[in-house]
């Protein structure tokens, strides 16, 4: 009897162990299944976001290519701000789309040290309070890209990149620039544009602070500089205000910016007298002694730093899907310059030295963020 009870107890213990092992196995399977479901859901969300982002970028390309005159870019163009006609598209329910001119900003890869100092000083007179000295910021930027600092403090002994900026985030790597200052400066700066020569901005879209600093950096009388800046700003006001009002008005019609005509074109950039007439300045090309007048001379200098068309565009995409409203994509579309080449029977043959070809509206940067 005792032997029978002993065997019965052993079977019970074995049964309990089997049940425990099966329970652990079932829990493991459940956890794996739950984890796989979450991963699948995450991957699906990422797929939806990636699909929306790529769709938005291709739509941005479409709107930019829809510009009837590629020789002139201004706030009244179909692509500028919230693209005209996008609101009526089905995609507008999934994401918001905004396109701005990247060449309305300062290209820190070729901007001169005196201009940068002038601009940073100007910002301090506005609502922007920078902790770092203007000369120190400008000198640090010049030194980082490998240039010689003329006015700022010495940068000897500081590790520098000795090459062009590839991203504005590199400002955070420069020890002498306060991180808060770097964030405040980013909206006015870019790393895209011409890689050589004088810095050029689009006169139709450039920020008023950048334009004011640019004109004040020219050689000439201070009162004439102020008069020239105010005349240009007064001329641009209707264009800027009309576009901003249309972009903010939820009931704005598709043709709300179609009557905006005030912008500068290439002919204006080739004729000082025509430019003066356009901005409402009296045409007096010569001074009292036969030399070029002060204001015409300022305009002549200004022409060297401005243009009226753009090749680089900033695209911001904001998700409107439930639960994903904080997801944002920022990308830059522009010309990617590559060596010209041709395919031959023995392989790829590159063209002569210096012959380059630009591929328009390539994706030059891609930054996804979550607010």
UniProtKB/TrEMBL annotation:
GO biological process: protein secretion
Keywords per UniProt: Membrane, Transmembrane, Transmembrane helix
Lineage: superkingdom: Bacteria
A single GO cellular-component term on record: membrane
Matches recorded under InterPro entries: GspK, GspK_central_sf
TM regions (residue ranges): 12-31
PANTHER family linked: TYPE II SECRETION SYSTEM PROTEIN K (PTHR38831), TYPE II SECRETION SYSTEM PROTEIN K-RELATED (PTHR38831:SF1)
Record protein name field: General secretion pathway protein GspK
Species: Candidatus Danuiimicrobium aquiferis
């Amino acid at each position: 009897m005792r032997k029978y009870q002993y065997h019965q107890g052993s079977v019970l213990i074995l049964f309990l162990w089997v049940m425990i092992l099966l329970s652990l196995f079932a829990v493991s399977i459940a956890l794996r299944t739950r984890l796989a479901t979450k991963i699948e859901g995450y991957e699906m969300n990422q797929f939806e976001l990636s699909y929306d982002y790529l769709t938005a970028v291709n739509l941005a390309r479409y709107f930019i290519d829809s510009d009837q005159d590629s020789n002139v870019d201004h706030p009244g163009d179909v692509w500028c701000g919230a693209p005209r006609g996008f609101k009526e598209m089905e995609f507008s329910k999934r994401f918001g789309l905004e396109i701005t001119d990247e060449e309305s900003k300062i290209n820190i890869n070729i901007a001169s040290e005196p201009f940068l100092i002038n601009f940073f000083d100007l910002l301090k007179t506005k609502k922007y309070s920078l902790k770092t000295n203007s000369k120190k910021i400008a000198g640090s930027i010049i030194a980082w890209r490998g240039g010689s600092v003329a006015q700022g403090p010495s940068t000897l002994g500081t590790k520098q990149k000795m090459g062009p900026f590839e991203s504005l985030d590199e400002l955070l790597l420069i020890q002498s620039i306060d991180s808060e200052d770097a964030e405040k400066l980013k909206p006015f700066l870019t790393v895209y544009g011409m890689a050589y020569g004088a810095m050029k901005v689009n006169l139709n879209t450039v920020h008023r602070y950048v334009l004011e600093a640019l004109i004040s950096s020219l050689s000439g009388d201070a009162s004439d500089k102020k008069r020239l800046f105010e005349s240009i700003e007064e001329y641009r006001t209707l264009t800027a205000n009309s576009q901003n009002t249309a972009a903010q008005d939820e009931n704005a019609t598709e043709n709300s910016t179609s009557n905006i005509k005030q912008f500068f074109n290439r002919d204006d950039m080739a004729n000082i007298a025509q430019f003066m007439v356009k901005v409402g300045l009296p045409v007096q090309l010569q001074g009292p002694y036969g030399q070029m007048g002060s204001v015409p001379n300022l305009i002549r200098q200004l022409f060297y730093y401005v243009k009226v068309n753009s090749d680089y565009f900033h695209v911001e995409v904001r998700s409107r899907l439930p639960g994903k409203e904080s997801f944002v994509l920022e990308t830059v579309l522009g010309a990617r310059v590559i060596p010209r080449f041709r395919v031959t029977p023995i392989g790829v043959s590159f063209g002569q030295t210096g012959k380059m070809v630009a591929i328009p509206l390539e994706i030059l940067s891609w930054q996804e963020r979550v607010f």
